Amino acid sequence: MWGYGHYIVFASAAAIGAGIEVAVEQAVGVAHIATAAASAAVTVPSAVYLFTVWLLHTRFDKRGLWHQSVLPAASVAVLVCTLAGHAAVLLAGVVGVIAVAVSVAFRARIVRAGLAGARENA
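The structure assignment produced for this chain is given below.
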């Protein structure tokens, strides 16, 4: 699962770049594709990427239910952004930023708790 799972990570990351190109072409009127389809070209591979990274990497590193659920929740939220029309790509980016910020905040809280525990034991 580890080795072949990375094919999904790399393919979804590449598909995000192609999806951004589709979304840009649709936004400027060159591509004759529905807004929802252009949005899905970015949001679906982004959600696959987030979930696969969680499945292969971060689920082993996170502690606690809330910390563990950041990337799966973000992947669902990114999929929901598909319904936002022209703002879907922007909102998906905002969801990504929020996911990173929440994950960093959880990690900092865990580190502070560990340092406080180490001081008490010393």
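Interim note for the steering committee: The chain has a mean pLDDT of 88. Helices lie at 2-27, 35-56, 65-68, 70-81, 88-121.
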